[in-house]
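Quick one:
INPUT:
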């Protein structure tokens, strides 16, 4: 085994999600973006393979070529630790816009400030100071 990386499968929104995450987080970038072309197995223009990174953590993604009977679940989430409260608040506000707040930003026994949100794409994020 050489690596373990998160992998996100979208239903036609992978590029939009990648660009949203890169805009939301500091030190984030799209590393690779390969799209399906005409006559390939996926819908033309959707993401065949996407790679982006947030603070050095590589995340893979794609748009499914099939309609799937499932989507994201909060039982798997990306956990982000922020050094600055202002960054934590900014990221939480951005990710929760159009999404669903699972645990509001607050003080909890396990963190002086923590929030949990499903973003507008259904991806679950836990954010801690």
């Amino acid at each position: 085994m050489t690596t373990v990386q998160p992998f996100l499968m979208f239903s036609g929104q992978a590029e939009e999600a990648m660009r949203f995450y890169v805009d939301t987080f500091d030190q984030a970038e799209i590393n690779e973006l390969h799209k399906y072309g005409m006559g390939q197995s996926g819908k033309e223009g959707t993401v065949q393979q996407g790679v982006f990174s947030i603070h050095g953590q590589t995340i893979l993604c794609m748009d499914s070529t099939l309609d799937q009977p499932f989507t994201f679940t909060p039982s798997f989430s990306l956990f982000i630790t922020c050094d600055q409260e202002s960054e934590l608040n900014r990221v939480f506000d951005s990710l929760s816009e159009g999404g669903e707040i699972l645990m509001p930003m607050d003080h909890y026994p396990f963190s002086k400030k923590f929030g949990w949100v499903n973003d507008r794409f259904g991806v679950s994020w836990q954010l801690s100071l």
